[in-house]
Design brief:
Blueprint (H helix, E strand, L loop, with lengths): L5 E4 L3 H12 L4 E4 L15 E2 L9 H24 L10 E5 L2 H17 L6 E5 L14 E5 L3 E2 L2 H14 L3 E3 L7 E4 L2 H12 L4 E12 L7 E4 L2 E5 L4 E5 L15 H12 L7 E13 L5 E4 L6 E5 L5 H18 L15
Parallel strand pairs: 1-2, 1-9, 2-8, 4-11, 9-16
Antiparallel strand pairs: 3-7, 4-6, 5-6, 10-13, 10-14, 11-12, 12-13, 15-16
The structure holds flavin-adenine dinucleotide (FAD).
The site of flavin-adenine dinucleotide has 42 residues, from helix 1, helix 5, strand 10, strand 14 and helix 7.
């Protein structure tokens, strides 16, 4: 057996997409995860790839914009290699504007988006009536429609990446010895480990719960209303999420807080009231102290690297994260944006 240049520990979206970027550049990679592909927070079902608001620009927002713009090609190549679809589609997003102040702000952002997003995407203030029944109620009759937001199905995306990796000869196993450089992409468990090793809080977990409904909404935009994401997938399902819980006893058990999420979503979109709930799911988002992704060499541990802290936007960030980590692992080139370093959390 040939030895791997890189051992990736953790088969969530960060580990898998970094493994993929390295394989695409010709590296020999193995992936090791005792719990299997998508066993952590990446095995969920929401999958909003949504931008920050186009204002107060900073390196984090720029990195996220670039990552969102990479996604189409990224998921197309994954599908071409392994034959599985991640359910990616750039279907845009609607957000109701509930008062005059929100409308003023949204119109300002219409302008700033022109500068910041340039011709890649638009942030438009539009009449809710343009979108007929698939639109949350809006007090002003107006909504923001952005053409940057996309969706994909998290669990299917992990499976698609695993298939693409296997098609290139990568082994994905529960247990294997380290060979080559080691990337630790262990999500919440990895943060707890880092907290213990550094004897301080580097990050923690924020539980989230979501539901999947059987409803074929077609190729319509995702919705963001009343703090909830409503994501129509391309397989005749709609995902609704999520709760955000700093304190929790049962990391992977949904509870009655999810009932409230479902009730609010179906109140906003009555057509969903008839839809059958086919899954209730919970996971723990890995949140770095800085709230940004936490990427780079493991301080004081040569040959070891960390990719963690995807928090609420791990899937949106994954294409960009995979590129900067492959640059670092394979070429020693450090293009990690300011604020994304391990040291920012120590
Ligand atoms: C309810 C909910 C909704 C979300 N919605 C969105 C969304 O709409 N859009 C978005 O972009 N993001 C969303 N997220 C966030 C996203 O899911 C996370 O940012 C992302 O999954 C983090 O990926 P990860 O690979 O870092 O961690 P994980 O997916 O948790 O992967 C870590 C992996 O490491 C493995 N592992 C643990 N210990 C070891 C070990 N010792 N050795 C090897 N492997 C180990 C685990 O088994 C696991 O597979 C959501 C999260 C939740 C919970």
């Amino acid at each position: 057996m040939t030895m791997a240049d890189i051992t990736v520990r953790g088969a969530g979206i960060f580990g898998l997409s970094i493994a993929w970027a390295c394989v695409q550049r010709g590296a020999r990679v193995q992936v090791v995860d005792p719990h299997g592909v998508g066993a952590g927070s990446s095995g969920g079902l929401v999958g909003a790839l949504a931008p920050h608001v186009p204002e107060n620009w900073n390196p984090k927002k720029q990195f996220q914009l670039e990552s969102l713009l990479m996604a189409q090609q990224f998921w197309t190549e994954v599908k071409a290699a392994g034959g599985h679809s991640a359910g990616y589609g750039r279907t845009g997003r609607l957000q109701p504007l509930q008062d005059a102040r929100a409308v003023v702000l949204a119109r300002q952002r219409e302008d700033t988006a022109r500068d910041l997003w340039q011709n890649h995407a638009q942030w438009q203030v539009r009449p809710a009536s343009d979108f007929s029944a698939w639109c949350p109620p809006s007090e002003t009759g107006l909504v923001v429609y952005d053409t940057l937001s996309a969706r994909m199905h998290p669990r299917r995306a992990c499976a698609a990446l695993a298939a693409a990796l296997v098609s290139k000869g990568v082994t994905i196993s529960a247990e294997a010895a380290d060979t080559g450089q080691v990337l630790h992409a262990k999500g919440y468990a990895g943060l707890l480990d880092l907290n213990a090793r550094f004897a301080r809080t580097v990050g923690n977990g924020v539980k989230g719960q979501a539901a999947l409904l059987r409803h074929d909404a077609g190729e319509v935009p995702q919705l963001y209303a009343d703090g909830l994401h409503i994501i129509p997938h391309d397989d005749g399902t709609v995902a609704i999420g999520s709760t955000s819980e700093r304190l929790f006893d049962h990391p992977s058990a949904p509870d009655n807080q999810l009932d409230d999420v479902i009730a609010r979503a179906t109140a906003a979109i009555p057509v969903l009231q008839q839809a059958r709930i086919i899954e209730r799911w919970a996971g723990v988002r890995p949140r770095a102290k800085s709230r940004a992704p936490m990427l780079g060499p493991w301080p004081g541990r040569p040959g070891h690297f960390i990719a963690n802290g995807g928090f609420k936007i791990g899937f949106g960030m994954a294409p960009g994260v995979s590129q900067v980590m492959a640059d670092l692992l394979l070429d020693g080139n450090d293009h990690i944006p300011p604020g994304f370093r391990i040291e920012d959390n120590l």
